Amino acid sequence: MNPQACTDCTRPSVDQERILLGHGAGGQLMAELLNDVITPHLAAPVEDAAVVPFGAARAVLSTDGFVVTPRFFPGGDIGSLAVHGTVNDLAMRGAAPVALCLAYVIEEGLPTAELRAVTASVAAAARAVGVPVVTGDTKVVNRGCADGLFVTTTGLGRLHPAARVSATRGRRGDVVLLSGPIGAHGTAILTAREGLGLASDVASDSRPLHRLVAAMLDAGGEDVHALRDPTRGGLAAALNELAAAGRIGIECDEPAVPVPAAVASACDLLGLDPFEVANEGCLVALVHPRAAQRVLAAMRARPEGADATVIGEATAGPPGRVTARTLVGSHRIVDLPLGEQLPRIC
Amino acid sequence: MNPQACTDCTRPSVDQERILLGHGAGGQLMAELLNDVITPHLAAPVEDAAVVPFGAARAVLSTDGFVVTPRFFPGGDIGSLAVHGTVNDLAMRGAAPVALCLAYVIEEGLPTAELRAVTASVAAAARAVGVPVVTGDTKVVNRGCADGLFVTTTGLGRLHPAARVSATRGRRGDVVLLSGPIGAHGTAILTAREGLGLASDVASDSRPLHRLVAAMLDAGGEDVHALRDPTRGGLAAALNELAAAGRIGIECDEPAVPVPAAVASACDLLGLDPFEVANEGCLVALVHPRAAQRVLAAMRARPEGADATVIGEATAGPPGRVTARTLVGSHRIVDLPLGEQLPRIC
């Protein structure tokens, strides 16, 4: 059984394009892949979670595959990350998690103890969130046909009664709030990754954000227009996606964006832009100005939002354009990252 | 980035056991893995789909990873199989599909045309079922870190109003119904698989069963006690799981089980037991005797149940014991298969 096994099956095309690592990195290449391959067949949603009418209620669904390497890193592991990632995708639509599903693809030869440790971590993270893992699936593939363990989590959520959150609801004049410092997750993964020889004490910020979002919605209701967690592609991708979906401009005050010193120095060393490094425990919000201070106060009252701050505002445009005011007062364009800066970050 | 990348991370144990291919095959080894690794941390459900209270309604959730090789085979491909597999897992709890989620793990280098073909197949299968794909996720891993493409589908379903279906509801005296011939899917995959040199015209039976189940529940209501689709581990595994969950015996009339001639000869050639070969388009039902003929008639009125037949009955036991009356009138024990007969069948 080798990876080329399907060359003599009924492969449907002679098209010579191939998938690149950057197609999975949350940037421009990924957007192109979705537009080129997915949209012609399936509706490609603007959001990571979908709202589905279910009886008299509305259900929220989100699914996410996790392929992070290494699987254990400072601040978490693939199991806790999978729980937090899916809980946060639900939260970004204004939903609280009701149930999680868990699917493993395991490479033959994975130490059983490691599977046990990841499963214990899934269970502990789900317990801390307060969501049951209700069903699962386990597949095993031949040695060499996967990289140890891939985890796919899917969440069912219930909308907060006051939630009218959508990436498309950003409006000119909205205040841009950030819940905390950026860059920790990507930097922690780099530190833990083989061969890079970095010594740093940065731990991933991986954590659930559903309680923070509930507090924001309690405080701001419909005035909380849009939420995004800056994961793959980092803050740059999140702001660009919000600007594009809302057909607004976003002007961000670069010195106002909190970047921990250890993250900044690791990024300097590696030539990375902290705006493009993945996060797993913070969020960006577009909030109507009349509610911004109230929402900000509600965020700061929670541990995961203690460092929440205003980082900019939504402008008339040009639609989709994100700019940053630098320390010296000039403006730079913050582009959607092209492809992978750090592959397999989640 | 090599598959051993995580040896210098914080691997949590020196335990020397490792996952075997057979741990994913739906048999005894898999049951042991679930008991040993999953149950200590998460509830290991008896069913492939979970019923979750959701507002005033009950939601049904099921998740399934697909790693079939080859990805294109007579009668289907990994995309249609992923849709049918999840729709059928929902159906086995008596639920109709409301929404699907789709997660890809793609190996760098996969031809884009192949991803496009699989996505088109997902879309076509979902359209035929009548269920929207509402959200998805795409991850790309380095070349050599996956085998082309893995697909995880998760379904949200709504319970049929009359459904009280559970693997645990099998009762002594229940009639065992089978919706159609067995063995086609596994045989088709074998035929398509590189190097086995079989020439046969068997196509997979992959298809959605939710309409068949709705017709059965319309006809039999609560008298439809338990449903199971005999996928990994085949009919042998399905009957053993129903017998164990219901604490009943099952006596099966072997000559009554329809095995197509092409399947029988392929199995003969390869030393396989058709009872253990995977199916993707039939189901086993335990039905109260007073409703059995009515349910059988409803099944036969639908194309996917045209060959439905009685294959046995539930007995007092010993609990969990499955026996088959052979052509010559003797009895043999039908065991839960140990491990992989055909790895990566779905």
TrEMBL record, chains A, B:
Biological process annotations from GO: protein maturation
Matching Pfam families: AIRS, AIRS_C
Record-annotated PurM-like C-terminal domain positions: 172-323
Domain PurM-like N-terminal positions: 47-158
SUPFAM superfamilies: PurM C-terminal domain-like, PurM N-terminal domain-like
Family: Belongs to the HypE family.
Protein's name according to its UniProt entry: Hydrogenase expression/formation protein HypE
Species of provenance: Virgisporangium aliadipatigenens
